[in-house]
Write a structure and sequence with these properties.
With 109 residues, this protein is mainly β. It contains one helix and nine strands.
């Protein structure tokens, strides 16, 4: 089995996770079909409870620190590649402080 390195297919977007989630960002690919996203939490202290959705409203609803929920915890200092629908929206909440999240659409691992 061949493992393909991550291939960026669009511009990197960013948001700053906070106690009150910021307005969602849409991460679009140049191919229109990229379903994988490289997600980096640049914070060394704060977990971001990331909300993802096909609309900005859905992403905001899913960005909650109350569990159980559809949120995805992104630990401090992590670099993840996750799969979602193309051109998804992202935002995130923290329990305290702020954390910068970088998201790049693409394919591979």
């Amino acid at each position: 089995m061949t493992i393909m390195a991550f291939n960026p297919q669009g511009d990197t977007q960013t948001f700053t996770g906070a106690v009150t989630p910021p307005s969602p960002v849409q991460v679009t690919s140049t191919t229109g079909a990229a379903t994988q996203y490289r997600i980096i939490n640049a914070s060394s202290q704060y977990t971001v409870f990331m909300g993802v959705g096909t609309t900005g409203a859905a992403a905001t609803t899913n960005a909650t620190t109350t569990l159980p929920s559809r949120t995805i915890p992104v630990l401090p200092g992590t670099d993840e590649i996750l799969t979602f629908t193309p051109n998804a929206y992202f935002t995130g909440a923290t329990t305290a402080g702020t954390a910068v999240i970088y998201i790049t659409p693409g394919s591979g691992s």
